[in-house]
Design goal:
Layout lengths: L1 E4 L4 H12 L4 E4 L3 H9 L3 H17 L2 E4 L2 H9 L8 E3 L20 E6 L8 H14 L5 E6 L5 H10 L6 E5 L3 H8 L4 E4 L5 H5 L3 H8 L4 E4 L2 H7 L3 E4 L4 H12 L2 H19 L1 H17 L1
Parallel strand pairs: 1-2, 2-3, 3-4, 5-6, 5-8, 6-7, 8-9, 9-10
C-alpha cells in the first residue's frame, strides 16, 4: 500500500491494512506538513504539536519512504528514524521526450514569467516589488510579466499591482493546462521563483523549477537551500526576501541575452541528465522492489 500526505490522516488506513492484512507500506512524503502549517497559520503550539505527531505516525507505519529531495530524506532519517536503505528520492519531474527545445518565441518584448500556486509563502508580492524597482532603475528595456496560476493570495497580488500602477506590465492568465499552458510558457524568457525564506521553502523543491528547465528558461530565485541545490548553474540567486536584489538579478538577465542563453542551456541539460522522469522512474521501481523484499 502506498499513501501520501496531504491528506494527513491516511496513515490510519495504512495502520489498519498493515495489521489486518500484513500489507507492506510505502509513505510518499509530499509535503513537510508541520513546517507548512506553521508558515500558513503561525506558531500555534497545540496544532503544531499535533502536526508533528501525525507525521510521526506516518513515518512509523511505513516500511519504505519516498522523498522528493535530499532535505526530505534527511528528515526521514532524523525525525522518522528510518534507515538510509529504506528511503528513495523520487522527484516530480518530466519525461525527456517532453522537453521543449528551439521553440520560436513570438513576443517582441522580453517576458518575465511566473508559474505556480499563489499563496503568501509563494512570495509573489516580493516579485511585484522587484518589478517596481526594476522599472525605476530600467534603462529602456521593454518587458512584460506573465503570471500563470491561482490561489488564495491572487486578489491581493492584483490589488498590489494596481496600487503600484504596474497594470500595464502584468497579465494574469489563471490556471492553464495542455496546449494553452505550453503556449504561454514558451513565451517566457525568464522564469521567477520568488518563494519567501521560511523553513518549508528552504527544504522543499518547487515544481515550477522543473517546468522552467523543460523549456530552457533561465531563472531568478531567492537563495534557498533546495533552490540552489537543484538550480545551480541555471539561475541567478538573490538574497532571501530582498526584492531589490531580486530586481537587480532580473536586470542582469534582461540586459544580457547571452547570459540568458547560457543559463537556459544549463537548465535544459540539468533536467535531461539529472532530473528527468526516466531517472526518477528507476528510483521508484527500486523503492517498490525494496518493499517487496522486506
Amino acid at each position: 500500500l502506498q499513501f501520501c500526505t496531504p491528506p494527513d490522516l491516511l496513515f490510519i488506513f495504512a495502520f489498519w491494512c498493515k495489521y489486518r492484512y500484513k500489507s507492506k507500506i510505502i509513505f510518499d512524503h509530499h509535503d513537510l506538513n508541520p513546517e507548512l502549517f506553521k508558515v500558513k497559520y503561525g506558531d500555534k503550539r497545540i496544532f503544531n504539536f499535533l502536526m508533528k505527531v501525525i507525521e510521526q505516525f506516518a513515518f512509523k507505519v511505513a516500511d519504505v519512504i519516498i522523498s522528493p529531495n535530499e532535505s526530505y530524506k534527511e528528515i526521514a532519517i532524523k525525525r522518522g528514524n528510518h534507515e538510509v536503505e529504506n528511503i528513495f528520492i523520487v522527484r516530480n519531474s518530466i519525461y525527456s521526450r517532453n522537453l521543449h527545445e528551439d521553440m520560436i518565441k513570438s513576443n517582441k518584448k522580453i517576458t518575465i514569467g511566473y508559474l505556480g500556486e499563489i499563496d503568501k509563502h509563494d512570495g509573489l508580492s516580493l516579485f511585484v516589488y522587484a518589478v517596481e524597482f526594476l522599472i525605476k532603475e530600467n534603462n529602456g528595456i521593454k518587458f512584460i510579466c506573465s503570471i500563470i496560476g491561482d490561489g488564495p493570495e491572487l486578489l491581493n497580488i492584483k490589488h498590489l499591482v494596481e496600487k503600484l500602477k504596474l497594470d500595464i506590465y502584468f497579465t494574469f492568465h489563471g490556471r492553464l493546462w495542455g496546449n494553452d499552458l505550453s503556449q504561454i510558457l514558451n513565451e517566457f524568457d525568464i522564469g521567477v521563483v520568488p518563494d519567501s525564506d521560511n523553513e518549508f521553502n528552504q527544504l522543499s523543491t518547487m515544481g515550477k523549477i522543473f517546468e522552467y528547465m523543460s523549456y530552457s528558461i533561465p531563472m531568478v530565485q531567492f537563495d534557498l537551500k533546495e533552490n540552489r541545490r537543484i538550480s545551480e548553474g541555471a539561475a541567478l540567486f538573490a538574497k532571501p526576501d530582498n526584492s531589490t536584489d531580486f530586481g537587480e538579478k532580473l536586470y542582469q538577465l534582461l540586459s544580457n541575452s547571452a547570459l540568458r542563453k547560457i543559463l537556459g542551456s544549463h537548465a535544459l541539460h540539468k533536467i535531461r541528465h539529472d532530473f528527468c522522469w526516466e531517472k526518477q522512474e528507476k528510483n521508484l521501481l527500486n523503492a517498490y522492489q525494496r518493499v517487496i523484499n522486506i
